[in-house]
Amino acid sequence: MISVYHYMILSAILFAIGSFGVLTRKNMIVIFMCIELMLNSVNLTFIALSRHLGNMDGQIFVFFVMTVAAAEAAVGLALIIAFYRNKESIEVDDFRLLKW
Amino acid sequence: MENLAQIAMESVNFQAIMPSLVLCCFGMVLLLVSVFLERGRTAPICWLSIIGLVVTGIISINGWNDPQAGFAGGVVLDNFATFFNLTCLIAAGLTILMSDSYLHREGYPVAEYYPLILFTTAGAMWMASGTDLMTIFLGLEVLSVSLYVLAGFFRGQLRSNEAGLKYFFLGAFSTGFMLYGVALLYGVTGTTKVAGIAEAIRLMPDASSNPMIIAGAILLSIGFLFKIGAAPFHMWTPDVYQGAPTPITAFMSAGPKAAAFAAFMRVTYISLDSLQVDMSAMFWVLAVLTMTIGNFVAIAQKDVKRMLAFSSISHAGYALVGMVAWNEVGFSGILFYMLVYTFMNIGAFAVLVLIGKQGEDNLTLDGMAGLGYKRPFLGVAMAIFLFSLMGLPPTAGFTGKFFIFAGALKAGYVWLAILGVLNSAVSLYYYLRVMVYMYFRDPVEDFSWVKMEMATIVSILIAIAGVLYLGVLPGPVMELAKLSIF
Amino acid sequence: MYSNLWLIPFFPLVGSIINGLFGKKIKNEKVIGGIATIAIFLSFLVSCQNFFRLLGDTEKVHQQILGSWMSIGILNVEWGFLLDPLSALMIMVVTGVGSLIHLYSIGYMHGETGFYRFFSYLNLFCFSMLMLVLGNNALVMFIGWEGVGLCSYLLIGYYFEKKSAGDAAKKAFVVNRIGDFGFLCGLFTLFWALGSKGVWTLNFVEISENAHLLQSGGLLVTVVTLCFFLGATGKSAQIPLYTWLPDAMEGPTPVSALIHAATMVTAGIYMIARMNILFAMSPTTMMVIAFVGAATALFAASIGFAQNDIKRVLAYSTVSQLGFMFMAMGVGAFTAGIFHLMTHAFFKACLFLGSGSVIHGMHHAYHHAHLHDDPQDMRNMGGLRKFMPITWITYLLSCLAIAGMPFFAGFFSKDEILWWTFASTRGSYLVWIIGTIAACMTAFYMFRSLYMTFHGEQRTDVRAKDHIPESPWVITLPLIILAGLATIAGFIGIPHAIDVAHVGNGIASFLDPVFGQAQQLHNIGIPEDLAHNVGLEIGLMCMSVVIGLIGIGGAYYMYMKKQELPAKFTGAFPGLHKAVFNKWYIDELYDFLFVNPCKKIGTFLWKGFDVCVVDGVVNGIGWVVKGLASGLRYTQSGFLHNYAMIMVVGVVVIVGYYIFG
Amino acid sequence: MEAMLFYLVALVSVISAFFVTKCRNPINSALCLVTTFLCLAVFYVMLQAPFMAAIQIMVYAGAIMVLIIFVIMLLNIGSVGKSRYTHGVAGAIVLSFLSFIVAAKFIAGGTVSKAVGDISAEVVQSYGHTELIGKAMFTEFLLPFEIASILLLVAIVGAVILSKRKV
C-alpha cells in the first residue's frame, strides 16, 4: 500500500534534484526550471498530505503556489530578457559586477 | 449558490484589511492615471502616492486598539500589525519622497514605479497582519515580486539587472525551502493557521520526538531569515543593495525587513512557542553570526552603499537578539528597533541619493571626502545618521539597541548582550571612516552637481526628526511598542 | 529646591547650538567667543548657587527628574540629575576651569579659521561633561561619556589639514571606544546581576542602596568592577590604554588644558568614585586599580624625562598624575583621589595654559621673523622669563604645586594619597614606594621643563629672539586665577596631623556622605593605631617634601648648573635614552599586536570567508588540494551559485544538527 | 496495482527530473520538465485531486512551460556555452545528497498528523473535487485569492516595465 510517506520521500528526491540543478547549472532559464521543479515537489507533498489528512487546505495552498510560480515566471523571464539585451548572455557566471 | 455567497460574506471583514485595501486601490488608480499622463511625467503620480500613504496611515491609526479579525482567521489587524504597517508606510513615504528627482536624474521617469512601491507596502501589511501561513506567504510573494522588479528597475544598467536577477533567483530558491517548511508543519498539524499550529503542537504528546516539527519550523524560518538578511542567508544582501536603485535599497533595508520580522515574530511567538528552547538556541547562533559577519566584512568595504548593506546585515543581527530573548521586552524591542532603523537607514541612503552623480558613480569613500565642508547640511545629516547607526546616545540607535539588549539581559543572555556591544564597538570603525572622510579629508570633488532637491531634503529632515525624537524622548513610542505585543 | 540643576548643562548646549548654526554668519570673533564664554560662565554661576546651597543643607543627596527617557517594561530610565557633594564639587571644577579656559581661548584662537567651530565644540564638550557628572543614572552618564569622547575627537582633529592631527583624533576615538566597551559591559553585567535579584535599575542612588544584594568579594562584583575599570582606563589614559593622550596634544592647547588635563580624562576617576560602593566590595579590583595606577604613574613619569616638546611633557605628566588618582582609588582613599583631581585640574590647567602662552609667544616671534621652527620644542626656548614674566610666575607656582612643595595645593592632595597608600587597610608598601619614586620624578621633569623654558640662556633663533611678547590679558588673567587656586586650594583639605588651627579637613567631611558608607561597611580606612600616630604622618610628609626637593635639585643641577650633563647621560646610556625617547616603543608594539591583525582579520573574513569557506567546504575535502593549487581561480565571488550554496549549507547544517543531534 | 503504478511513474518523474539538470540544450530540459509535471499530474489523480491534476497540466505544463520555451526561442541561444555546469559540481552533489539524507531522516523519523478531516474519498466522489476546491477557495480562503490577483497584477506590470525597450 502506498502511504503518504512514499510521496514525501519522492518529493524529497525531486527537491534535492531541483536544488542540485540550481546549484550547478549556468543557464539561467534552466536554473529557473529547476526552481520550478523544487516548487512542484513541494506541491506533491502538499497534495499527498491533504489527501492523508482529509482536508482541502493543502490543495488550496498548491493552487496559490502555482499562481506564485506563474507570477515569478513572468517577472523572472522579463529580468532575464532585460539582462540579455544588455549583455547578450543568459549565463549566471556572466554577471559579476557586484562582488567582494 | 446563494447559500455559498452567504457563507463567503460571513467571514468577510473589510475592517481587518482596510489599510492594505486602500493602498491597493490607490495603486490601481495610479496605474490607470499614469496611462493618461504624457511619458516622463511622474510628479503627479508621486504626490498622489504620498497622499495614498497618508490616507492609509490615518486609517491605520484609527484602527489602533481596535483589533479586527476576519476572513476565517486568515488575517487580523491588531496593534502589532498596525505598528508594523505604520513602520512600512513611513519607509515607503520616505522612499517615494527621495525617488522622483532621482528617477529623472537617472533617466527612468517611469510612473509605474510608485504603484509598485504601494503594492510592496500592501504585501508587507499582509505579512504583518496575516494569521494564516497562506496569507503570510502570499503577502511575502507580493512583496518579493514587486521588489524583484524594483531592484532590476534600471533595465538598461547591468548593475541593476544583476541585482534584480540575483535577488530573484535566491529569493525564489528560499521560497522553495520556506514552502517545504510550511508543508511539513501542515502535515504535522493539519492546518496552516498560525494559532491552529500552536494548538496542535501543544496537544501533541510526542512533539519533542517528532523531527518533522523542528524541521518544518526551521525551514519555515529560513524564508524569513532570508528576507531579513540573517547569516548564512545574507549572501544576496550586499550585491542586491549595491546594484539596486538607491531609494529601493533604502526601502528594502527598512520596510520589507520590518515586515519579515513581523511575520517571523508572529509565527515563532505564537505557533512555535513550544519549541522555544530549540529555536532560541538557533537564533542565538545566527544572531551572533549575523552581527559578526556583517560588521567584519563591512570594514573592508570602499563603496559606501555596499558598506551600508553589510551594516544592514549586522543590524538584522542586533534585532535577532530580541528574538533570542523571547520575552515581551525583546519582542517590543524589535518593533521599536525596526522603526528606528527605518528612520536612520533611509535617512543615510537619502543623503547618498543626493550626493551621487548620474549613474551612481560617486558613492565611494573618496567621493565623500570633504562633504562636511562643501555641503554642511548633508554632512551634518549624514553624521547624525551614522551616529545613530553606531548606537551613540542620545540618538535613536542607542535607545533601540538598549531596548533589545535589555530584553536579552532580562532573559539572562549576558554573553549575547556583551557580544552585541562588542560588535557595535567594531562597527564604529567603518562608520567612523565615513566621518573621517567627510570631515578630515580635503575635498576631491566640488560637489557642484549636487542639487538640493526639496522632496529629498524633506525626507532627510523627517528622518533626522525621527532619529532625534526616538533618541531623546522615546518613551511614548516605546509604550506603543509594548502595547503592540499580541 | 534644586530645581535649576538642568540649567547647568543647558547653557553650554545652547551656546554650542547658537555658534554651530549661526557662527559662520556672525563672523565677529568677540561675539562668538563671548557667547560661548558667557554660556559656560552662567552655568558656573548656577553651579555656585547649588554648591553653596548644598554646603549649608543637611540633606546631601538630591535628584531632579526632568522626565522619562526610556520605559521598557522592566525599567524606567529618566532624564534626571543627581546633586550630591561629589557631583557638586565636579561641576564647580568643570564650569570654573571651563569658564577660564573659554576666556583664554578667545585670545589664543584669535584669527584661526573655524573659530566658531572651535567654540561650538568646546561648549558641546562642557555640556557632555556636565551630563556625565550630573547624570543620576548610568545611561545619562553614558551620554556624557560618549559625548566627551566625541568632542575630544572633534577637537583633537581640529587642525585636520595636518595628517598627524587626523590620526591622533582617530586613535583617541578608537581607544576611547575600547573604554566605552568596558563601560557598557560593566553596565550590562551589573544591570543583569541586580536584575536577577529582582531590582532592575540603573539609577546610581538605587544601585548604592541595593548593592548589598550582590555577594561582597564575589566573582560577579569583581567582573563588573573590572569592566568598569577597563572603561576608566580608556577614558583616563591608564596602562594599557594611555597612548592616545600624548598624541592628543595635536589639538589646540586650550583643548589640552580643558579636556586632556582638567576634566575629561578624570571621568574615569569620577566614575569609580561614583560607584565606590561596588568597588569597595571587591578587594581584588581595588588591588588591580592601585597597581595599575602606580605602574602608570611611574612609567609615564619616566617617559616624561626625555620629551622635548613642552606639551608632551605635560601630557605624560597628566598620565602620571592620573595614575596617582587611581592609586588613591585603589587603596580606598576616595576623598584624597577626588581632592587630587581637583587640585590637579587647577595646576595642570595652569601649566597647559602657560605652555600655550609660551607657544603663542614663540609662534608670534617666528611668524614675525618668517621662520618655521617648532614653537613647541623646549630646545628652542630658554630664558623666556624676561619676556613673559606673568607666564613664568604662574608656571613656577604650578610647578611647585605639582612637585608637592609645602602648602601648595599639590602638597596636601598628594601627601594624603601617599599617606593612604602607606597606612590604609587596603594599602601596600610597594604602591607607596612606587608612588614616592614617581613623585620625585615628577618634581624632576616638571622643573626640567621650567628651567629649559624660562631659565638659562636663550636658545631661540636670533632673528626671532626679540619679538616674543607677553600674552594679552585674556590669556594671562586665567593663568593668574588658576595659579592662585593652585597655590591656595590645598587648604580645604588640611590633614589631621598638621591641623594646628583645628579648622578640620573640609573636603573630607564634605565628601563623607558619598564615601563614608562604603568605607565603613567594607572596613576601608586608616587603622586606629596609625591614625593617631601623628609623628609617623609628619615624618612621611617631611620625607616626601625632601624627595620633591631632591627632584627639583636634580633638575637644577642638570639643566641649570651643568648643562652638559644630560648629553653625557645620553652618551653613557644611549639605548636607555633612545627607548625612553621613543616612549618604550609602545605604539609600534600595538601596531604589531593589535592593529595589523585586526586589519588582517577583516580582509580574511572578506575575501577568505567567501572564497575559502564557500568553495572549500562545498568542493569537499578531496578537492582541497586542487582547490589550493588553483586557489587564485577561486579568489572570486559574486557568483550566484556560491550564494545559493551557502544557503543550502546553512539549511543542511541547521536542520541536520537538530535532526541528528 | 496502485503500488506498481506509483513506482513506475515515480521512476519516470525522477529520471526526467534528473535530465532537466543534465540536458545540454535548454529546450530538452524544458521538455523533460514537462514530463515530470505530467507525472505529478498522474500522482494528483491517484491522490483523488483531479482538479489539481487538470490545472497542473494547464497552468504548469501549459502556460508556464510555454512561456519558458517561448523565451528560450526568443533569445535563440540553443545549446551555446562551453559547459553546462559552473564550478563546484562535486560539492553540489554532496550537498544535495546530504539534504536528501536529512529530509529522508525527518520524513522517516517523523509522523504526520493522524487527524482525519471530513474530506474522504467518498466525499470527493459525491461532491466533485472542483466544487470542494471552489467552496474552500471562496469561503475560507477568499483573502488569499484576492491577494493572488494583486500578485498577478504586480507581475504583469513588472514584466511590462522590465521588458519594454524604451522608457
Question: What's the shape of chain A?
Answer: elongated
Mean pLDDT of chain A: 90
Q: What's the multimeric state?
A: heterotetramer
Question: Mind telling me the C-alpha Rg of chain A?
Answer: 17 Å
User: What proportion of the residues of chain A is helical, as a percent range?
Assistant: over 70%
Order of helices and strands of chain A: HHH
Q: Enumerate how many helices of chain C there are, as a single number.
A: 28
Number of domains of chain A: 1
Q: How would you write the strand order of the largest sheet of chain C? A: 1-2
Properties at a glance:
heterotetramer; A: mainly alpha; Helix Hairpins; 3 helices; 0% strand; D: mainly alpha
Structure in a nutshell:
The complex is a heterotetramer of chains A (100), B (486), C (661) and D (167). Chain C is mainly α. Chain C has helices at 7-26, 29-55, 85-108, 115-134, 138-156, 163-195, 204-210, 219-235, 244-247, 253-262, 267-274, 276-280, 283-304, 310-330, 334-369, 389-403, 409-423, 429-454, 462-465, 473-488, 506-521, 528-531, 534-561, 565-572, 574-581, 586-619, 624-629, 640-660, and strands at 62-71, 76-83.
Can you offer a commentary on this structure?
The complex is a heterotetramer of chains A (100), B (486), C (661) and D (167). Chain A has 100 residues and is mainly alpha-helical. Chain A has a single domain, classed as Helix Hairpins. Chain A is elongated and about 50 Å long. The N and C termini of chain A lie far apart (53 Å). The mean pLDDT of chain A is 90. Chain B has a two-stranded antiparallel sheet. In chain B, a hairpin with a 4-residue loop joins β1 and β2. Chain B is globular and about 70 Å long. Among the domains of chain C are: 241 residues, no CATH class; 54 residues, no CATH class. A two-stranded antiparallel sheet of chain C has the order 1-2. In chain C, β1 and β2 form a beta hairpin. In chain C, α1 packs antiparallel against α2 and α15 packs across α17. About 5% of the residues of chain C have low confidence.
